[in-house]
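Cross-check.
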Amino acid sequence: MNVTKVFDDIYVSIDIGTTKICVLVAKKIDKDNVQIIGIGKHPSDGLKKGVVVDIAKTVHSIKEAVKEAEFVSGHTIETAVIGISGNHINSFNSSGAVPIKRKKVNQYDIVNVIAAAKAVPIPLGQQILHVLPQYYIIDGHDKVRDPIEMHGVRLEAQVHIITGSVASVQNLVRCCEMAGVKVVDIVLEQLASADAVLSVDERELGVAVLDIGGGTSDFALYQNNSIKHTMVLPIAGNHFTNDVAIGIQATINDAERIKQKYGTACLDLLTNLDEDIELDMVHGFAKSTIKRSYLVKIIEPRAKELLTLVYKDVEKYSLKPFMTTGLVLTGGGSLLKGMRELAQEIFQVPVRIGVPKTDYVALESLNSPIYATAYGLLLHTIKKESSSMDSVNGPMAAKIFFKMKAWVSDFF
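Predicted model, tokenized:
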């Protein structure tokens, strides 16, 4: 197959997960939509809880996924946006204020007030990944989303700041470079997943999204179309699999198979408690069977632990009133039977499973939560690009774009 260079209207995302590497190649349709023209997947080997622990294995996994995506799309992949997660991610809210120089707010004032809001002490070894505006206030009056062209003398901004470990980011970027791909941006995974699975109304009225991956579970809460809270939990799908492997003395591969085929997170949903499940034993070639009810009694406590920890975080920061439209579960872990029902029982809000929203036919169906992060990375990229182009033009646009991306170069 002939392979061509990637053009300006072609975008590439790489979801570097603990269990899988997923590469999507997309063509931009308009400022809000892309069409997938290539998909590459490969088992991830070299990460633990979202953090690189073996560079050589991670590089190999990325190379294989990229190679498949290049073959399918017919394009050489040289640059990409990647997602990041892990227990090293931290977040907090901050505020700043500046005088409005020309008595009418312009983009310079926005840049300056955001710079003031993020001028806070950052722990040693951490780097700011995202500064996300929540709202603005002019002269102490009501909160506004877009203060451009509004008159006043003092501009305030409330922002949500997300930080990550410098070393973890360096290792992730280095792995991509060794695989022949230059990283042009890094996005927190739950922000990307939210872009893929949430509706405009949900983000406006108030909604939470929980992306249950292989190594981490990533939580984010939105209202008034702005981020209110984020967190990362080091408990996810692999922990379910390991629990099953230990509990029934099976291989990891067999435990994963059994979890997906027979597992459920809610014993009350099980109708055939006495169903026998055949499994491969860890030692030797002996076959054995277990009751399905026994399997569920292993999985259900872990599922409750995960969802309860998230709920405790919601309670700690009094976030429940913001979950007006409910909770959206996504990521591979959301496919476990009973997770939706268990989450609804714990949170006492409507719960649905989130899949990527796309109106364009792809080479492979994206109608699965496992593609939420990779697809969301593409949407996040074109949305940021469109936003920076719409807000200002010329040198100022380039300056603001540089400010958004400058932290990537800080790692090298």
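The chain is about 35% helix and 30% strand. The first strand starts at residue 4 and ends at 5. Passed to J.P. for a second look.
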